[in-house]
Amino acid sequence: MSGRKTDWDVIVAGAGVFGAWTAWELQRRGRRVLLVDGAGPANARASSGGESRLTRTIYGVDAVYTRMARDSLEAWRWLSGRAGLPVLHAAGVLMFFRRMEAYASASIETHRALGLPLEELDRAELVRRYPQVAWDGIELGLLEREHGILMARRGVQTLVAEFVAAGGEYRPDDVATPSEGGSLSALHTIGGAALRAREFVFACGPWLPKLFPDILGARIFTTRQEVFFFATPRGDVRFRSEHMPAWVDFDAGNMYYGCPDLESRGFKLGNDRHGPPFDPDFGDRRPTEAGLNDARTYLARRFPALAGQPLVESRVCQYENTSSGDFLIDRHPRIENLVLVGGGSGHGFKHGPAVGRYAADLVTGMPLALEPRFSLASNAGVQARTVR
Residue 251's domain spans which residues? Predict the structure, then answer.
């Protein structure tokens, strides 16, 4: 394979957060890299598109994701410094609980073990700091001051621009499913061109099970998710990012999350519960009345000053959930020089830099501590759970 004529060392298909960071990391290591995406970086149908994502290290006992979020933060800070407008808004993230339950206590212990800062706020302190929130039924808050909100579309598009400026190549091409076994020599575009490389990465988010139905059709499940943005009262600054953090209302059955009014786009609210199955190409992206009513009911309970405020924006996107809720980063079982990267499962965006480094290690044959949870063998069977 080393003597084969190629145009690139690596071709990465998919310019979302996982593909873009993988391409960036490979290019930094001296590889000649082509990044391709027919619809464009962080396009409107991509799981990496849209306005904002949370970055946090609170993951209960799960030190793997806590470390990955920690290790990704500096890269997001760097990228934010390269952008004309911020990619990272370090407004903090507050996760609050009805009691000191196992997830909260495990998060505290994990942060202590890793030496990460985490503030514990009791009910009285929550009321004092954030009187704009109705704290009924809440006993505990965990605050991460260094984290906050990532501007999703802006971040991915900025990273792709940095990748190109540093010597990488991007093309707006759609590629077909590879049909070869053994060793792949080229990707073929929908237009018929052959793109030749030594190694290949497919990081195509919710399109992975469409491209590889025999391997991933029973491992990645794409679900419909709705988020809403509400106006804040004129002259009321309490819901801006200077006065409140991003937040997660932890409930094992119905976890709501959101962002303060950031860059004047409105107060963001979403329900983390998995929606129905969704087709990223043809699915209806109009929000449902039931979803909007659910959001308004939650506002009335937790943010009463916003209950009657107008809806200013909404978005229908998708999660691509693996059967385990873990990421998928592994070699194709029949194509030795093809790596599959995906399964963000609704919590993957913040980990983009760490995923890119891990995938680049796998592509280049670097020694790495393989994480069994990211393997194809682990992500098998019916949809079971979500990593919170």
Answer: 8-374
Residue 160 lies in a domain: yes
| pLDDT score at 383 | 47
pLDDT tens for residues 289-321?
999 999 999 999 999 999 999 999 999 999 999
The total number of structural domains in the chain stands at 1
Does 380 fall in a domain? Answer: no
Confidence (pLDDT) at 182: 87
- Low pLDDT (below 70) residues in the chain: 1-5, 252-253, 369-370, 380-388
Look at residue 387 in the predicted model and tell me its pLDDT.
Answer: 59
CATH number at residue 76: 3.30.9.10
Residue 50 counted as domain residue = yes
Residue-level pLDDT at 2: 45
Q: CA 223, CA 386: separation in Å to the nearest integer? A: 12
Phi, psi of 359 (to 5 degrees): -65, -40
331 part of a folded domain: yes
Please choose, from the candidates 363, 357, 145, 344, the residue with its C-alpha nearest in 3D space to the C-alpha of residue 246: 145
For residue 339, the cross-strand partners are: 201, 331
Query: Within the chain, where are the H helices?
Result: 17-28, 63-82, 102-114, 123-129, 152-165, 208-211, 213-216, 289-302, 352-364
In the chain, what is the greatest distance between 2 CA atoms, to the nearest angstrom? 68
- Residue 172: in which H helix or E strand, if any? none
* Cβ pair 328, 340 in contact under 8 A: yes
How far is the C-alpha of 73 from the C-alpha of 97, rounded, in Å?
25
| Alpha carbon distance 387, 281 (integer Å) | 26
